Amino acid sequence: MPVSAPASRAPQGDKNASLFRTASGRHYFVPFLLVTGLFFMWGFAHSLLDVLNKHFQNTLHLNKAQSAFVQSSMYFGYFVMALPAGVILRRLGYKGAVIFGLAAFAVGAFWFAPAVNINAYWAFLAGIFVIAMGLTCLETAANPYVTLLGPPETAASRINLAQTFNGLAWIVGPYVGGEVLFNPDKMAHVGNDGLKHIYVTLGIVVTVIAVAFLFAKLPEAAKEEEAAGDLPVAAANEGASLFSRKHFVGAIVAQFAYVAAQTGIFAFFINYTVDASKAWCEPGTHWSDGQAAKLFSGAFALFAGGRFLGSFVMRKLKAESVLRLYAGANVVLMAVVLADIRYVSLGAVCVSFFFMSIMFPTIFSLGVHNLGEKAKSASSFIIMAIVGGAIVTPAMGRIADIWSMRAGFVVPLVGFLVIFAYAFLWRRLAGESVRN
Q1: N or C: which end of the chain has fewer CB within 10 A?
Q2: Cα atoms found within 13 Å of the Cα of residue 82, Cβ hemisphere only
Q3: 26-234+241-430 to CATH, choices 3.90.1150.10, 3.30.499.10, 1.20.1270.10, 1.20.1250.20
C-alpha cells in the first residue's frame, strides 16, 4: 500500500484531484463516511479513560500511579491484540476485522454492568482491557483502509480528515463523563453506578453499528489499488524483511513516544488543572474536578481543529515537515509547563492538544510508506507501539506522587523530542532524497 502523500506534496496536476476517486475510476466517499464513524467511536471510548482516571482516585481512593493503570489496561490490551488483529485482518478482510472489533468492543462495554456490582478496581480494568482488544482490531483495519479509499498522493489528507471525527469524540467524551461522574446534582453521589449508565449505552450503540456493518456493502480495496505505484519498490526489495525498512522501525519508536506523551497529558490533565489552581487561587476557590473536565473537553476542540486543519495542510506541505514543526512546538510548550508560569503554563498544556492532533495518523502514514502488501503487517506492529501509554503513564504518575504533577510533564517533553528526531531523520530513514 503506497502512502506517498506523507513524503511529498501532490504533483501539480493533482492538487484539485478528488480525495476519494482512484486512478481506476472507483469512488469511495460512502465507504469513507461509514468508516470514519469508527474513528468517532474509539475516540469516545479513549476520552472516557481520562475522566475515569480522576474518578477512581475519588471513589476507590487511589494515588496517581495506581489510577494510571486505567490507561495501562487499555494499552496493554492493544499490545496483546495487535498481532492477532493483523491475522484477523488478513483472513477476514477489512469488513470482517471491523465487525470482530465492534463485537469485542460491545462485550467490554456491557461488562461494566456486573463490574459496578463487583465494585473492585480489577473488574473495571478487565472491562477496559476487553474494549481495548476490540479497538485494536478497529484501528488496525480502519487506519490502512482509509489510506486506500482514494488516490495515494492524498492518503495523508484522507487519514487526517478521518481522524478529525476521532478528535470530535474527544470533545464529547470528557464532557459526558464529567457531567455524569463529577456533577453533584446528577449521579456523582452514587459512586461508580454512573459508569453503568455510560458503558451500557455505549455497548448498545456499538452493537447497532456492528449490525449496520454486517449488512453494509463495504468494498475490499482492489489488489491493484493496494499495490498501485509500488511495484518498482516491491521488485527492488523482494525478500527484504519488514524490519529492514528503517522508516518503519522509526515509526514504531516514534509512535511509542507519542502515545506515551499523549496518554500522560490526557490522563493527568484534570489532576494538573486542579492541583495548579490550588496553588494559584485563594483557598476554597480552586477549580473542581467537574470544571477541569469541561476545560479538558474544551482543549479537545483545539485537538479536533488541528486534525481538520491538518487534513488540508498535508495536501500542501510535506508531512514529515509538518510533524517536525508540531513536535518542536510541543517541546517548547512542555518546557513552559515545567517552568510553572501560572495560567500561561495551563494554557501551554491546552495548546499542546492542537500540536498533538496530527501526530498519530502522520507517524502511521510515514511508517507504512511504500510497504505494499507488507502494510497490513506493518499496521499491526505500529499499533503495538501504543503500549507506550501502558508503560510510561504509571511512571509519570509516580513522578507526580513523589514530586508534583507539574514535574511529571518531563515525560511528554522527552516523548516529543523523540518524535521531532524521527521527523527530522525520516527522509534519510526512508532512503529518499529531499525534494524541493
Answers
A1: C
A2: 18
A3: 1.20.1250.20
